[in-house]
Amino acid sequence: MTQQERWFSHLLPVLVLAALLVITGLATNQVRRNAEERQYVAFSEESEWVQKSIAGRMLSYEELARGAAAFFTTSQAVSPDEWTLYAESLGLRAHYPGITGIGFVSHVRHADLAGFVRRLGRPVKPAGPREEHYVVTLIDPVERNAIVLGYDIASDPERKVAADLARDRGDATITGKIELLQDVEQLPGFLMLYPIYRPGSAKTTAAQRRDAIVGWVYLASRVSDVMSQLPYVRHSDLTFRVTDVESGELLFSNDDRAASSGSMRQASVLPIHGRHWRVETVSRRNPASAPGFRAAAFVAAGGTAISALISAIIWSFATRRQKAIGLATEMTRTLREREQGIRAIVDNIVEGIVSLDSELRIKTFNRAAETMLGYASADVVGKTAHEVFPAINAGHLTGEESLLEARRNDGTTIVVAITVGSIETAAPEYVAVFRDVTEKMRTQEALRRSETVNRSIIDNMLGGMIISTSDGVIQSVNPAAEKIFRYSREELAGRPLTLLFATTVPSLGEFLCVARESSMDKISEWQGRRHNGEVFPLELSLFEIEGPDGSLLAGNVQDISERRQVERMKKEFVSTVSHELRTPLTSIQGSLDLLAAGVFGPLAEKPREMIQIALRNSTRLIQLINDILDLERLDSGRMEMHFQNTAIRPLFEKAIQSVRGVADRDGIGLTIESADGEVFADDHRIVQVLVNFLSNAIKFSPPGSAVVISSSRAGGMWQLNVTDRGRGVPPELQDKIFERFQQVDASDSRAKGGTGLGLAICKTIAEQHGGSIGVESSQTAGSTFWVRLPAAVADGENVLIVEDDNDLARVLVEQLASAGISASTAGTLEGAAKAIETTRPRLLVVDLALPDGNGADLVARLKIDPRFQSLPLVVYTATDLSPEQRNALRLGPTRHFVKANRRDIHVVAAVLDLLAPPKSGGAT
Amino acid sequence: MKVLIIDDEEDVRQIAVLSLTHVGGIDVIEASSGEDGIRKARDEKPDAIMLDVSMPGMDGPTTLARLKADDAVASIPVVFITARAMSNEVAELKALGAKGVITKPFKAMELSDQLVRCLQEE
What we know:
By secondary structure, chain A is α+β, with helices and mostly antiparallel strands. Helices cover 45% and strands 23% of the residues of chain A.
């Protein structure tokens, strides 16, 4: 459709509408004008009626006045009673509505006034110097007009002018607007005066009339009374106003509003008895309510409606075509856009999309399919789908996703996940949507293999593995765990972890709490419970793993009952062996001792030498057994150590005493060079070390030389030195000689009678003191063997309080001080570890909750340190401890308690108790 | 002074007897088992008893318990002799009510002195 057509189709109805509206307007106007005309005619007629009524009324008044004048003329002298009778005969009220009163005014010359007043019997009012007096002498009805009797109307110019004019004209004349004396409302009124002349006098000219005048009959009236009594006007829709033309004064109006508004108005001037009244009429009617106007309105409305209807029909006809064309264009555009959109989706979608006809021939092949498979669309369109998907068959046309092999252009194959849906057309057609899942399959396969590997690792692990939810519900276990606990995987799934532990902790939640604290990422020992109820020791370490549905708790479990058994057996074995060896050695040694001592009489030299050899080797054998036992005890931590502050000198003296005999026999001097200092040590064990050093020194010193013993300061430690003049230790062996069964020369053990274990034992002892051991040697100047030991601690600082609450710590220190016990404090784990090392407390008070960690870690560290593992300990916690936790939190004599409100009381009591001298059987 | 020595090992017993008699000048009565020892203790009323810990049948601790349960011999001091040298074992043996513990192998020349020291200890 052209621009012009469109324009025309819009314009045509508008033009038609305009024309019809013009016609309607003209018709309406005509109807209205006709109506107006009709209305105006009616209004004019009514107006004329009003005017005629007014004129008629005034005429009837004139006739009345004329009649009354005739009465006077014929009667000559009229008494008030006669006047009243006459007036009543007139029937004023009935026939002359609007008349207030009818009366007679006498013409009195001023010279005659006195006599007139006398005759009248009442004064003339108002008094005043006037040439002539026109005095009201009669009035009826008297009762309402009495006030006017004696009134000189000549005193009022308005009245006098009218009276004079009436006299001169010889005809009825009215006054201009006056206010009647008797009218209390003071509304506009007028008098109509009719002259009466002396009978028989000439009355042709004005002058003659002036001479002949005797008086006037007059009518008094209020204009409003006259008008309201008009028969027609009372029922008319008209309003009107009457104005005295000569004075311009308003005499009457029956509607002030209508006077200024109103669609129709008419005015005419009526000559009224010597004056002129302008009567202005206004229609009170609403022109629109007039039947003619309603018709016009109907014409207008109907015409407009019909015009609109016709225009609309034309519009509709004119635009329908346009709309149809527009709609078609729009639909075409939408379809094109939609198709473009679909095309864009199909081309840009990552899935391959191929449409197939009913014979499974390829119709379209999208860009993703091209990319995925390496074909150009043009190469495959028209070919059968089997070219691309060799295995495609009816089973794939179900709309369900399936896996299918696709052959790429380069001959390789990929695996696609394909969905083939059918389109319901005349012959079924299909759309195949597919994506390359080769990589995914490969990944899944790899994952599956990796899972299989992991699974088989877990399944073949020697250790048990328990996987539980984070709240302790078992999910699965590996075969090792099944074997350990004698439950099957199925039996355990869904059961609580506590099933597998012989624990006194009441709830699963608390068990988890304790287990996490003691076993998370570290190994701790627990009592396990097998299916048959057997309780056994196990090692547990927990770690968290991220499962698909949140974090899981994994537990590594090791059944250590066998290890415990072996340990027990080893211990028993060592014990047994030592017993079994010692018993025969007792006999051998005893026999030889007695023989060598000559208890049974003196021996010949040769036998005595033999017995000495036997005795020496027997002693060596016993020493070897003792050393093995010592090492075993040191290794297993069963060597009891008793640390205390010890002066070095007595240690030296005791050691020298032990080896004095041997030294003397070998001619070796033993000299203490210096023995200053005090160490924190187990004196028996340190003497053992010194004896070992001295024995070696004596063994390897040349005869006559001296072994020198000394002490020296080495930082916070004291170093105890044993120096010989022997052959020295080669540098490459200086570390090795502290290992087991190592000697400077392999032949030494036989030549010098050592066991090869002595220095290894010394090293272990030194380490368990927190010290060290070593040798400085040159092959010319001999060797110095030394052991470094922690220096003794100052007296007094003998209780360490590990507590981060400073106030509480201070209270505890003060309370202990008052009990004679000095104490120091540490607020952190780190500070506590340092303080323990430097002050060597004889008792430790530990609050578990510390800013930089848990006090339990401190206790665990001390537990493996021989210097502190028997330290008295007071532990207090915020929550109750399980038996397992209590067991872990133990060094020497230990007291546990839960924090109460007054922690200080418990702590001080516990400290005093633990530091009190031991009572019999009071061991904790 | 008269000492009863109860030990199943005849060699050890003999060395102890020789040592105590020849070195310490002590009269010694021998018993080779716990039962034998208890009987001889009742009969002979020795001044002290040396009791081996490890014996087949009735062992040292059981024998000690029997001796202590018998009013006639309960007051006789008992000293254990043992090849088990662990210090905790020594403490345990003492806790059973023994006067002292002498470990094997003992020195034959010092045995009588050791015994006297044990008996004198409070």
